[in-house]
Each structure stands twice: as C-alpha cells, then as structure tokens.
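Record format v2
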Amino acid sequence: MQPFIKSTGLVAPVDRVNVDTDAIIPKQFLKRIERSGFGQFLFFEWRFDEQGAVIPEFNLNKPRYQGASVLLSRANFGCGSSREHAPWAILDYGFNVVIAPSFADIFYNNCFKNGILPIKLSEEQVDDLFKRTEATEGYKLTVDLENKVISDDQGLSIPFELDEHRRQFLLQGLDDIGLTLQHADEISAYEAKNEKRLANVF
Amino acid sequence: MFEKIWNNHVIHSEAGKPSILYIDLHLVHEVTSPQAFEGLRMTGRKVRRPDLTFATMDHNVPTKDRFNISDPISKQQIDTLTTNAAEFGVKLYDLNTIDQGVVHVMGPELGLTHPGKTIVCGDSHTSTHGAFGALAFGIGTSEVEHVLATQCLQQSKAKTMKVNFIGKRPAGITAKDLILGLIAKYGTDFATGYVIEYTGEAITGLTMEERMTVCNMSIEGGARAGLIAPDETTFNYLRGREYAPQGEDFDRAVEQWKALTTDEGAVYDTEVDLDVATLVPQVTWGTSPGMGTGITSIVPYPEQLPTENERKAAEKALEYMDLAPGTPMTEIPIDYVFIGSCTNGRIEDLRAAASVAKGHSVSPNVTAIVVPGSGRVKIQAEKEGLDQIFTAAGFEWREAGCSMCLAMNPDVLQPGQRCASTSNRNFEGRQGRGGRTHLVSPEMAAAAAIKGKFTDVRNWEFKSEVTA
C-alpha cells in the first residue's frame, strides 16, 4: 500500500447525510472479481440517469470539481453494507481523503486498508468547509497526516484527531496481515490451548 | 458478556494498538471473497484454518431456473468461489446442496453458530449471529483476506450499549417491529462504535429465529454487533444440529455457555430504552431504515423534524419515494412484495406470512414473491404445505438466495415500483434503480400483498381454509 503523508487537492462536496454504500457503488457493479476499475461506477445512480446520460447538477459532474481528491460529505458516511468496493471506487475515482462529521464503522475501517484517510470533524467545521468549497472555485485543502492538520490557502488550519496506530499504519503503508503474522507463535499457542473447543469437543 | 467473549479471544494486546482477536468461525460468500483469495494467491499464503471456514453462494443466485445464470459476470463470481473453495480446501455449500442459502440463514441452521464464538463474514448482516450470544460482525474484503491468512483480526475494543426493551410485546407486534421501532426512535447511527446487548422480557420471550431478526438489523443502527444472552431457547435450538457439539460434549458446552451471561451489576458504557407496550406494526417511509413509523401514523412533514440535516434528508427521501407528507401509511399503494432475506427468510417468517395469506388472493396490481432463506427452509415449508398456501393466494414460490434484498440477481424492481419488503435496507436503488422500498414484517408484507396497500395486520381476518 502507498504511504500517505501529505496531500493537496481539490475538494468536491456531496451534501447529504447517511451516504450509504449502495449509493457509493450500486450492487450491479459488485460482480467484478478484481479490486480495480470501480471508479467509473462511483455514485453511479447520482452521476448518470437511467439512459446513461450525465446528470449535470450532481457535483462530481461539474467542471469545477473535476480532478478532486478530497471528498466532503455529511454524517454517517459509508453506512450500510461492508462492501470494500465502496472505498475501492472512491480511491479509483481519485479521492484519497474523505471528510465528514462521522463515518459508519466498517467503511471507516475499510478506508485504512486501502490508503484512504477518513477525517472526522465537527458538524460546524464541516459546515464551514462546505461554505468555503462553494464560495471559491478551485478550493483546495492540504491534508498533513504527519501533523494531523488540514489547511487551505486562506489561512484556515484545523487540527484533526486520529488514532495513533491508524496514523502510523497510513504513514508507513503497512501490510497488516504481515503484522499479525509476526504473532504466529501466539496464534499457534492459542489454537493449541483451544483445539478441543474449536473441534466442538467440550 | 461482550467483555467475556472478547477476553476469551484476545491473543495479543499492547497499549495504543488494536488487539489481535482470534476468529472461531469465518463464513464466506461469493461477492466479498474473490479479491481476498486472489490476495492469498499473490502473496503465496494459505487459508490457515479451512476447518473453521465455510462458504456458500447467495447474493447472485437466481431464484428461478437457478442453474441457468444468464448474467455472465454473476456466473463468473459464482464459478470463482467454486474454484477458490476447491483450491484452498474450504467447505462449500453450493447450488447442488440443500444447505445452500443466505449465509446468515444456513450458518445457524447447520449449527455453526454457537454462544461465545467470534464469527465474521464479509457481510454487514453477520450481526445476525449475535442472537446466540456470539460476537459476530461484518468485515471488508481486506479483512476477509486477513482472517483467511491468519484466523485473526486486528480489532479495537468496541464500547458497550444495553438496549432495554421495556414491557410486554403486544399481540401482532413482531421481532421486526421491535428492531424497526428502535431504529426509528434512535436513528441509523445511534450505536456506531458500540456492541449492543438486547435485554428485557420482550427479548427473552423471542424464539431463536425472532432473535436473529433483531440482531440482524443491529448494523442498521450503526452497531458493530448485537448480542442476546444465550438461554434454554438458544440451547434447545442448537441441540442435535450438525455442527453443534454432540452428546455429553453438548451438555458440557451448555455449562460453559451459561457462564457467558453478563454479570449482575455489570456497567455498560451507555443504555437506551424502548417502550414495547406502545409499539404498533412498523413501516418505513423513507430511504434510510431510521425513517420509519407506525402503520396507524402518517408520512411525516419534513418541516416538523428537529434538525436542518433531518429536514433536508426527509425532503430528499420523500421526493425519491414520491410520497406526500400527511398521507396515512394505510393509503400507500404498492406494486411488489418481497418476503425473504437474512432478516426474515426463515421458516417461522414464512409460516407467519402464510397464515396471513391463507384463503386470500394477492391484489391484481401486485407481484408478490416468497424467497426461502435456504434450501432447508424451502424443503420444510413445502413439507408443511406453505408453498401451496402461497401459490394458491397468487404469490410466486422461489428458490433460496438473497434475491430482492439487494437485487444482485434477476429479481429487480423497475423504476418507480413500490415494494413492501421484509428485508433490512430501504436505501435509494437498493432493490433496483428508482425502486421504492418500504421495510415491514412478513405479516405486514403478506397483508399488503393482498390489500394492494399497507394495512394494519392486527385487524386481519385470518382464514383457516385455502379458498382463493
């Protein structure tokens, strides 16, 4: 996984609460057996109408938000299914940061496995970012994971909270299966101790 | 109870890092596993414990002519699971076995789900298994790979929430109404970061299948998992099942399982209450499971909601659902009925729906399908003649699978169609692009099929003869 250290990018707003994983990537696109190529289907039913034509009112279709890498949204982002296709689609589309007041657990966790940084800010801070994004065409944010700060070129600087382990995980682009396997002896010892139970013998 | 299960499975913990948690049971289906097996292949890793890993196919399976999968990508996903299970030595319940079915229906049926186990699956409705007092939760595909390779997960400990269901469950109020009522009251993220324990006489009085319905939708409240303390109902359900401990092992297991119950006076991080005695049958009106109300109520006026975000969300939802504020819930006509899913696709659900359908006819404006949760549910229902009751009333009787819960198979709503569904999510487009989903219990769904609109099943005219 690519390490995430610092990134500056255009902000694209999706102004809805409870953006669910069915909206992020509709189920008809879950049938691929690869991890790649999901970006074209991101928010598919909001981006395209039933005939496949672009819906110009949806923010991601507006010229001013092309090339965005920071996705700004509302509370309970990523609720619903556990499909990792949702972060795969977000990343493949070009986003590596999602900012919202809160995230659903499984989605939040899935982001870190894919080098996406989900940032929780207060409702007021998110509101302010929505206003700034709307007011300034080409509005960009710099996300500094090293120092846990978001900033813009208008003087805004917001510190954000992040679990230290998760921060290190992204900074170093770690392979967590490898990390767990460093404890292979402990896993084996646990299995030896619990082998009867695991074999349904009590 | 959560603490006890957690402590029994932590193999390593250090300050500032997630713990490494041992996983007792890993269930696998075709949608969230191909990239995980591919990851193993690329890194030269094996499945550490194929004996603790069980696979089935459910999401893509057609419910008519199931061996003839016309969508080539669906077929490829199913074929990929078959190949992966064979290559990595994982037991697969495929379309040729009677145990094939929705993973959260067939797992408990096989007796794989035990109190005190840690259970994961690449599926958010894994919370279903918490009904047995197991710590069960959904994971993403990277974690599926992690569990395949290590039989462990890195997990931060969740907080604990006690949900008190207060009072007796009135006649005509189902397990589905309990959980829909809870989410309607507290919202779709009230339990984010928590493991819920459901308590109260309304819970202990439920059958195992009803408990599964409640725990299934824990995720719809945002919870990591939902638990119900194991008791005689749990033990009686498990006794004699294929993967339950057998003979004296079972009796010794029961003694251990009894010890899992939360200690008297244990403190939860938070508690919430729901008054059961005043609940009425629930129907959702919006595009989030929390947007629900009683059948005796009306579609709400967005401007009366407390926050700006809720008002905006309700306006968007009502526009999508094509509903006018103030419409009585009993005045909403429907086009489609789906009875099935990991929430309500078990034999008791089908019995309940059949008792409503018996002797009546599906409204001419409605297409109604009944999709058993597993091959075994289907066979049992047919043994009891439920299929005859349904088909006589004009319902279609289908083969087992996830079907229209998420419409990855050919069972899809057309744009603008309105569906009474016993599933778990009413998100935009969930059952098909432009489709409008109302979540209800199996009884309410069957009654809606017959009336052509939602109706209060507490006033239902039950018939004892099939006359339609």
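The radius of gyration of chain A is 19 Å.
Chain A touches chain B through 57 residues (CB under 8 Å).
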